[in-house]
Amino acid sequence: MTTSMKSISRRGFLHGMGGSILSLPWMESLAAKPSAEVARRLAFYYVPIGVVRRTFFPGEENGVTPLFNRDNFNAEETKTRIPKGEHPLELTATMKPLGGVREKVSLITGMDRTFQPGTDVHAQCASCFLTSAGTFTVKQSPYPQARTLDHILGEQLGANTPFRTL
Fold first, then answer.
1. Dist. CA 149–CA 157, nearest whole Å
2. What is the pTM of this model?
3. 92 exposed, middle or buried (CB, 10 Å; 0-12, 13-18, 19+)?
4. Cα–Cα distances in Å, from 35 out to 110, 141, 156, 157?
5. How many alpha carbons fall within 13 Å on the CB side of residue 72?
6. Which is nearest to 58 in space by CA: 98, 84, 94?
7. Where are the domains of the chain?
8. What are the tens digits of pLDDT across the range 58-111?
9. Spatial CB neighbours of 142, under 8 Å, sequence gap ≥ 6
10. DSSP-derived secondary structure for the chain
11. How far apart are CA 134 and CA 153, in angstroms?
């Protein structure tokens, strides 16, 4: 027997729905609670053409801009003489826009990549970005430069994100 909507009273509707109407207000309490831990994010900033070191790296404001010549480049002249360890982040002219997120920024400097005469410094930097493996030295890996730091950390930090790495 079919009944049209016009002939169903409010009381008849509630009776027909039974306990499901009563359970609706409590269903909210059964939902999964949002995670209290905020997903950690990590970003790497890569400048393939380079930066003017005097305006980017703290402590190098008075440094000399080296000439990258294939024959007479001296890597020691370009190194900053800041002692190892953690230091407060000084925002240089180029980094001033990061002022609002300063407490969330870590600037890692002093890393070294030996310059090989006979090749362009830009190509060498690109070939080893985020990995310490030398160019063409890794043979038994699907990754030609070994696993990169973003993938290693993505396995740990990316558990609560839609994509572990991009």
1. 12
2. 0.50
3. buried
4. 37, 36, 17, 15
5. 2
6. 94
7. 40-115, 128-166
8. 877 776 666 655 566 565 666 666 777 888 888 888 889 999 998 888 887 766
9. none
10. ----GGG--HHHHHHHHTHHHHHHHHHGGGSPPPPSSPPP-------TT---HHHHSTT-TT-------TTT--GGGG---PPSS--PPP--TTTGGGGGGGGG---------PPPTTS-HHHHHHHTTT--PPTT---SSSSTT---HHHHHHHHHGGGSS-S--
11. 20
Q: Please tell me the total number of residues recorded for the chain in this structure.
A: 166
- Name the amino acid, one letter, at 105: V
- Tokens read off for 165: 């790495």
Token pair of 146 as six digits: 């070994």
**What's the rounded Cα separation, in Å, for the pair 87 and 76?**
22
